[in-house]
Design brief:
The chain is α/β, with parallel strands linked by helices. The chain is built from nine helices and 13 strands. A hairpin with a 5-residue loop joins strand 12 and strand 13 (about 285-295).
Length: about 300
């Protein structure tokens, strides 16, 4: 994010996040700019901005996800920056690159940070080099036979995970060799269908894990702040049902350590902006890097 004065900022999104960003921009003396599809001509986010431009038909793939249409609007209407909100193009590294190539500021993390944290196998390697604790595991697996060898090394139970994954897709908890072979095949198939990438890796399973997240803010000066934790352990089919803060597991010392490690993780990829570092923890107070969400979240 370059340091410069903005007159107009386009919010490449819809709904509540656009309304909230528009309010903040206006408070800063910056004109918020909306985009809208056929379905959103009269939506609140359109009325909340000073300017609004039509971006395409109702399907998101033909409007809010159409990089070329969004950039045409930006280039032709004296817009200085783009705020992606969350969802849609917010974690799309190619979009961030295209915005910067057009001479416009992308209000979000650098594209390289998105790419590094977008691949779970690459993120694990980066975190390992940065001395951030990670769950013992493998690199990308080439075959079910290699998965069996890794499971023998770490001991059951193990988790098979999609390198490009999220939301529990391409993830399998495995307790023995027989489950591993079938789980490997089904995880690869599901990962391919969900993400277009069937790369699978293996981790030692953390038994009865707690899912704890730390929100962070990183500035262009290299400094990162952590903003407290929330626990997301109550899930159904790997989807969060309840988020609770503060976590009943985390005491002051553990909170401080997790916050410091979250900042360490963000700084390892030269992160800028709002983000969330996710950890798995056990009931003994050990915690391990899980992944990073390289975008603003609802919880911010």
């Amino acid at each position: 994010m370059a340091k410069r004065a903005f007159k107009r900022v386009l919010i490449a999104n819809r709904g509540e996040i656009t309304v909230r960003v528009a309010k903040t921009l206006r408070d800063m003396g910056i004109s918020p700019v909306a985009i809208y599809s056929d379905a959103d001509r009269m939506a609140p986010h359109v009325r909340s901005c000073d300017y609004a431009y039509y971006v395409g038909p109702s399907p998101a793939t033909e409007s809010y996800l159409d990089t070329d249409k969004i950039l045409d609007i930006v280039v032709n209407n004296e817009i200085d920056a783009i705020h992606p909100g969350y969802g849609f193009l917010s974690e799309n590294a190619a979009f961030a690159d295209a915005v910067e190539a057009a001479g416009v500021t992308f209000i979000g993390p650098p594209s390289n940070a998105m790419r590094l944290m977008g691949s779970k196998t690459e993120a694990r390697e980066v975190m390992k080099r940065a001395q951030v604790p990670i769950v013992p595991g493998s690199e990308a697996l080439e075959s079910a036979e290699e998965a069996l060898a890794m499971a023998a090394q770490f001991g059951y139970p193990v988790m098979l995970k999609a390198a490009a994954g999220g939301g529990g897709k391409g993830m399998r908890l495995v307790h023995n060799d027989a489950e591993l072979e079938s789980g490997y095949r089904s995880a690869k198939s599901e990962a391919k269908n969900a993400f277009g990438d069937d790369t699978i890796y293996l981790e030692k399973a953390v038994v009865n894990p707690r899912h704890i997240e730390i929100q962070i803010l990183s500035g262009p000066d290299g400094r990162t702040l952590w903003l407290g934790e929330r626990e997301c352990s109550m899930q159904r089919r790997h989807q969060k049902v309840i988020e609770e803060t503060p976590s009943v597991l985390v005491d002051d010392e553990m909170r401080r350590k997790m916050g410091e490690v979250a900042c360490q993780a963000a700084e390892a990829v030269n992160y800028i902006g709002a983000g969330t570092v996710e950890f798995l923890a056990d009931n003994e107070g050990n915690f391990y890097f899980l992944e990073m969400n390289t975008r603003l979240q609802v919880e911010h």
